[in-house]
Please model this.
Amino acid sequence: METVYLNSTNLDYWKNKATSNVMALGFFDGIHKGHQKVIRTAVKKAKEKGVSVSVMSFFPHPKTVLSKGAPTFDYIMPLKEKGKVLERLGVDTFYIVTFDKTFASLSPEVYVSNYLIDFGVEHAVAGYDFSYGKFGAGHIDRLKDDSNGSIDVTKVSKVDYQGEKISSTWVRQMLLSGDIEDLPNILGRSYELACKWDGAALQPLPYYTVPAAGCYSVTIHTGYGAVQANVVVSENRDAVYPREPLGPDHLGTNYVTIAWHYRVQAGAAYAYSL
Model:
């Protein structure tokens, strides 16, 4: 899979390299089961048409650009990890548009012309609530008209779990509350968080949402394999402490990935001597 970072300086270059494709549209943070339905639909359409399949997303999140004070945002996963999941789902090209105020000010028609038609999109696939263009005025039901009929469109219906719509917002809420047991049913996998071991604690890498303070049952994937363990998230969620020592024989590397299973106890209620 090819990953392409798009901005105003290289847009024309990548337009010229684009070939016919089916494109899935969305932010896709976490790539939960709802996102997977959109992407798998695009992959199926691309196979039917005999063209490549692409995903067009953007970064950073609009809230960090359009909200006053540029608030921090709890990303579920960094772009590199998002790309790995998209590749496994069969995506050929992952476009990441720089989201800035200029991009946000594009009319729906200009967005469709500059970022879809000019990129060879024959068919666009998006969730039923996808919006685009200034103030989010564009929506999936008008995309074909905005392309003057040149792009066919598939609108993917919502995916729910136990009667609630699956969304990135819901995933964040579950992580920030510590109620993570059902995440595999929503993500299709355990939530994973990459960390760096500093000899005393596991330091979360950027662009992940660290679960709420508390003690958790996890699997730590290390250089030597998988270690079942309990860990404690600090009160301010900036460090993860193994309840049992993890020395070089366990780690084998300074970087590990934590797969989260369930919370044993709320609150950072333990002291450590590591």
Summary: Residues 108 and 257 are 40 Å apart (CA to CA). The mean pLDDT is 92.
